[in-house]
Amino acid sequence: MYALLELGGQPYRANLTEPLDIAIPLKAGLQTVNCFYAPPMEVSPVVVGDFVGDTSQGGAVNFKNIRLNPHGNGTHTECVGHISREGHTINQCLRQFHWPARLLSLFPAKIDGGDRVVLRSQLEGLLEGEPLTPALVLRTLPNDDLKMLTNHSGANPPYFHHEAIAYLVERGVEHLLVDLPSIDREEDGGKLLGHRAFWQYPEQPRTMCTISELIYVNNAIRDGYYLLNLQIASFEVDASPSKPVLYALQPA
């Protein structure tokens, strides 16, 4: 089964039977990704009288409660409601689920003070003269599957300079997906300059645009153009655990 689309005036097709999952699985406990000191995800059975919602404990079915923090426990997608005073929710803001996307890889630059930062000049060098896509997927280097296990809390992980984010907005990027805990510095005094630049909040809020963080793009997936399918749970809050999936584009 194929999907047909046009990019840069050229027709492409995507084989929908060959998905490339770039989400980190949500798991209970400590052996998974975590950031911002969020408590780990917890899974516990419902217990009511003689009923136990756990087949391993003799229950007829598995019927469990899940406690999680979307921002800290794994791959998630967030909307402008993450920083706005208005009640924007991811379920209301994300109304379309497929877009042409560009996958890029780069080493964040080391700046004075030791921070590792994605700079505007780096993105300009990779994107100038290339076809525009509404979605951009960024893989930071070096890259390995330890990203699926890392506790980023207190580690000052890489982030985006807000001018780099402003450049992506100029390029028409509406959906940004990154393998970082946040596009902003872990400790920035609440400025959130990257988030504010991306959503242009509060001046002209881009309410239909999203940021997905804590993805993981295996090295076997090459840089290039893809069809992105971005899946969320229909949470009426600012963010949801998400499952972004890529499909390689081939000339039609």
Automatic annotation (TrEMBL):
Gene3D superfamilies: Putative cyclase
GO biological process, one term: L-tryptophan catabolic process to kynurenine
A GO MF label: arylformamidase activity
InterPro entries reported in the protein's UniProt record: KFase/CYL, KFase_sf
Pfam family for this entry, one: Cyclase
Transmembrane segments annotated in the record for this chain: none
Protein name: Cyclase family protein
